[in-house]
Fold these 3 entries.
Entry 1:
Amino acid sequence: MSAGTLAPGTVASPSETPRTVRRRPPAVTGRLGDIALRTSVPVLLLGLWAWGSGSGRIEERIFPSPWSVATTFVDLVRTGVLWDNLSVSIGRVALGFVIGGSLGLLLGTLAGLVRLGDQLLDPTLQMLRTIPFLAVAPLLILWFGIDERPKIIIIATAALFPLYLNTHSAVRNVDRKVLEAGRVFGLRGLALVRQVVLPEAIPGILVGLRVSLSVSLLALIVAELTNAPKGLGFLMTSAQQYYQTDVLVVIIVIYAVWGLSVDLIVRGIERVLLPYKHLGRSA
Amino acid sequence: MSGVHATGVVKRFGDRTILDGFSLDIAPGEFVALLGASGSGKTTFLRILAGLEDHDGGTVDAPGQRTVVFQEPRLVAAKRVRDNVLLGQRPTAQHRKAASAALAEVALAGQERAWPTTLSGGEAQRVALARALVRRPDLLLLDEPFAALDALTRIRMQALVADLVHEHRPAVLLVTHDVDEAILLADRVAVLQDGVVGVEVEVPFARPRRRGVAGFGDLRRRLLAELGVEETIGAA
Ligand SMILES: Nc1ncnc2c1ncn2[C@@H]1O[C@H](COP(=O)(O)OP(=O)(O)O)[C@@H](O)[C@H]1O
Ligand SMILES: [Mg+2]
């Protein structure tokens, strides 16, 4: 999961994404052999877990067995409890991300393009981003109470900065020579932004998107751990109160799958928006 | 179509005067090469003609419809070849057809949907040439467009430009430090020295031109001498 690999304030250049790291030639060739090797360690760990639980070496109360986690998962799905809470969490992240992310994209583009915008916005945002957003959460909860608003604000704040920072630097670093070519061929103002600046900045913006989505998930977890009447975090808090370790593990796995989906979604978007990235020589 | 009239152009960067009363005319359909040492101000003058740079004195008249091929292709990586050729034009059916025709002219027929990153340096530069020609410019500005290409590709590109210019007949300003290139392509060669045009020479050779033609060596030596280069290599 990439949620932890990039801190919220990181500006990564597109070439630093893990995917473009060149792999060493595999020790075992052939597709089946490759898959077998890659899955061997996780399968071994799963086996150890099953063996430990079955033989009683892992106490069920401390860490539940694989089968009780599976049964609990099925129960949570069948009773509708899981979807009830998961859908609320997805809704919160979606709303918070749309607000914070689009603000970050907008401000980043503005500050990257216009000198005045840069002077007005960048120092402030650079200062604010040094505050860990998690530290502000208690204050927001005091201000806005325990309803939806503080949760959405926490997620939006978290989503804003990675997109702002990456968009800002991507837009600012668009090759000035290409920009000039656009101008020679009659592009001005918004047309230049739409036809040259944004297309050229997309790789950097997508790095921001990836970080932003990952950080939104962290923000969700924190936002829901206090006073949530519904949501994955609420499910977690109550499971903790009643010592339901099986429910806790199910939710942890769901968070992990969430993080993985974020990666897959961004890769999908990359494939659509940057079809040329996998082709040819160098950029 | 009134051609280029630059009179007494002055251009300063800080306290350095790069162009100091520079004058040059280019008639409609005429091909002028501007020779000069590196840093003499060739690009600066071309950029003034392109409207990319202001000047501090003198007058500059240039046709409205002018396009540029830079030393680098300067293609938008996120746009396919055809959309790069169409940059700044609306993608109407008519414009698309013109773009395909322009690509065919630079020997890139069928490459409309290719991505710039998959092209070689010479191919990318031909896309840049197609992008400049598709608008039927009255003035074509070429800023050392062959300098970054390998020697063989350069010769092919020079021939291609000679053909296409002959066909479309825009006024052309070719900025270069390559004396052979100037003589092969231009109707007239101007040498930029100390901020002014030091020497102007009509190129007397009939087209198509070849390096070996009688008088080529003399003209070449003369222009090199103007640039302060004496070409004798090896022990005397
Ligand atoms: N934007 C600029 N700011 C300051 N100096 C510049 C700028 N552009 C060009 N120059 C200087 O002007 C001189 C002429 O540059 P240029 O026209 O690019 O030369 P050429 O194309 O003949 O090699 C060089 O010394 C260059 O450093
Ligand atoms: Mg130059």
Entry 2:
Amino acid sequence: MKIKLWWLTFSPLCWAGHFLASYLTTAIYCAKFASPEGDALPVRIAVAVFTIVALSLITFFGVRSLRLHRRGDATLPHDDDTVDDEQRFLGFAALLLAILSGIATLYTALVFVLMETCH
Amino acid sequence: MNISASQSALDFAGKGAERIAELFYWMTGGAIVIWIVVIGLAVYAVMSRRAHPVRMTHWLVIGGGAVIPTITLTALLSYGLAMLPELQEPAPKGSTTIEVAGVRWWWRVNYLDPSGGRIVTANEIYLPVDQPVEFKLTSEDVIHSFWIPSLGGKIDMVPGRTNRLKLHPTREGVFHGVCAEFCGEAHAQMRFRVVVTDQNAFDEWLETQSQASKSSSEMAEGEAMFLSRGCSACHTIRGTSADGMVGPDLTHFGSRLSIAAGVLDNTPQNLARWLVDTHGVKPGVEMPAFESLSGEEVDTLVRYLGALQ
Ligand SMILES: [Cu+2]
């Protein structure tokens, strides 16, 4: 398979989607369904699910990217105008972005590990 | 301006501010660690003439540039987040509850009386030491932000919404409060004083605030002038027929430390200046200047307002 530039955006999009979903769920739940003293357990469960989904997708993109990067034998620094160089470069950049997105997603999830209520 | 009162978050006098100061020092420490590792390795890379094994250079770059900063940030994030539940927790039921509304460019303050009533004042907040206090914060016009740096964190005051904040003063003294969200021309002069006292002095103060102003025969002339000059269209003085709501309640104005939301110390000279040069003191303010008052009239009003203890 040959990847396009779009491939780079997939992991960061998972991170963005995870952040938005977590934020919106919390805002709506805490404003509409919980008392001010309210426990946020349903939100925390929902975010746990979002996190599993997001991390699975990010892992998938990361592993694919690593494979793409390893394929072929174009040499560093991957800046020749050839398909091989392009693919190795994209694979590597996408891998780094996947790692970054994974950490960022975990940081978002950490909030919900440490916060138990809606205050 | 009374600069002896503290406005520093690091000179803390409340539980929230103490945690914030603690967090600030840890964050500074963490930033220094990251800076030293990253810049240290960069400088080493520039200075070093020796060739290194490729594997080692990888680990120096990845370890120093990514792994150590990530670990440091994760530790700081966890530490900061772990503080929040306690700080965000509402004050226990039965704690003193104070409603504060931001109004361009001053603060309407209502103490909720346990019996259900409201004790109205403005621009000055008394708090009992070593007691949690619950604030209910709103705005009557634009977004303001309520912040007493020495006592704790700040929170926005949003029109149509009530935000809550718990503060827990731990030291007696006078502190500065400020508006921390740009709200227009006089934003920088939208301030207030916070007086933290022992429980007895607080109870006494609140009892006084709950009463109408005492009137005496010496005050009759000033009161009549206050009413006839139209001040009462905007200001309330309980115990008189002045019941305007546009400006701050002045029932016990004489006992306040400051004039015009923390801008001037409350002295007769400053008060006289405030009445005739209102916009010179606080540009943009929503009170007309009373330039047409004669010196004698100003004196009468100043004496009257000062007597509103
Ligand atoms: Cu303001």
Entry 3:
Amino acid sequence: MAGNNTNIELITIGGSAGSLPVVLKIIKSLPASFKVPIVIVIHRQRNVSSELVKILNNSSASKKIIEPDDKETIGDSCIYLAPQNYHLLIEKDRTFSLDYSEAVLFSRPSIDVTFESAARVYKKKLAAVLLTGANSDGTTGLSTVVHRGGIAVAQDPSTAEYPAMPLSAVRNVKELTVLSPEGIVKFLAALMSNGK
Amino acid sequence: MTTQKADITEDELDEMLNVVNTTYGYDFSDYSRASMQRRVSRFMDTAGYKTAVDLTFQLKKDRSVFDYFLQRITVNVTEMFRDPAFYKVIRQEVLPVLASYPIIKIWHAGCSSGEEVFSMAILLSEAGLLKRSRIYATDVNPYNVEKAKKGILPLNVMKEYNENYIQSGGQNDFASYYTSLYNNAIIRKDLRENILFSQHNLVTDQAFNEFQIILCRNVMIYFNRRLQNRVIHLFNDSLSTFGYLALGIKESLLFTDLQNKFEVVSKDEKVFRRIK
Ligand SMILES: C[S@@+](CC[C@H](N)C(=O)[O-])C[C@H]1O[C@@H](n2cnc3c(N)ncnc32)[C@H](O)[C@@H]1O
């Protein structure tokens, strides 16, 4: 796969319906000493004041999940979650920008928006992972990641609770690595030991 | 499958924004780059420009292209009672303090089409303060300002706004604040009486009054840190001592050099108060 031996400096993960258990599994299995920052985008219901941060934080005692404020600097060993109702973008100076513009593919935060803007900044130092979901968000984003030299991964649709989202990526993204949740965990652990 | 977006390089964007600034006096150079890049490429897609160079050329020679660009380039999405918990803080903690002023001067900076301003007017009216309030609502986008002056919203979103209103602690009949006409909701005239909508550019225009509260929500997320800092200075110059500053819930004063001039009124809802 492309860029396998370059050092990864950011990991983005996008998930929709059914992705919470997979995200939890990934976070829990991260090596305690992980350095490479992780940015997670999960579709959530609008205006339902979300418990997601709490759930994620309770389940991973040692790792804290942060909903970043606008213009916050991306830090090593940090896990970020896109706040609800905003798109999460990344600036060249590696700070976050939030954006309240229209939903994309009915989603805000949009996985495509975050993946694309991360790809512009991190290029081949980005690995992006797309998980289960019931729509087609993330496909364009993964294509951009590949186009800019980064690594694109999708959850194996046969292991996904809702296969539509990874399936769309499998059909449309070339140079895609397809992995089971266990495979993703191993893959990230390997990236982590290579990275930073 | 998904539509391919127009790509635009950093240099092309610089050149375009430079042309816009020198030709029309609108300076977008310190806007957040990531979002500006998206807006421009989106504009190119919807308006049918194939290359950034082409758009830049048209912008330079045709004022009407620029007018349309200005109308579409800012993010204008807004809601009534967006972030209900924020309005609860205004209702419960801020308005009781503002009530002690004989005239309450309020500035909504970046008011878009007015939804936030109408929400505030409702709170003021319920607190019996509207009559002695002077509300200045400004936006850089003249199209937004014109829309806001009309006070007409699409009827189909009022149900959602009603839910926001209730969550914010509202106890009246929300529908009593507007009249329905076909697919429109017209905000009651008496609610709009003390509101002055006008164009004002936070990048280039000066302070124009002194306020007891300034609301600037989800506007500075489109600015880089340098511009954010300048605008916070402008607000500081425009606030009375102990005046309030309300930002969007994901915005922070942490990256400005004036942070020690403000105390936190609500950490989660990003309401601050000038103390020096
Ligand atoms: C996302 S809307 C926020 C509307 C409202 N405050 C809210 O939170 O719902 C952002 C607004 O900021 C305005 N804006 C952008 N740049 C500005 C500037 N330089 N000066 C004044 N307003 C600006 C835009 O035109 C737009 O109406």
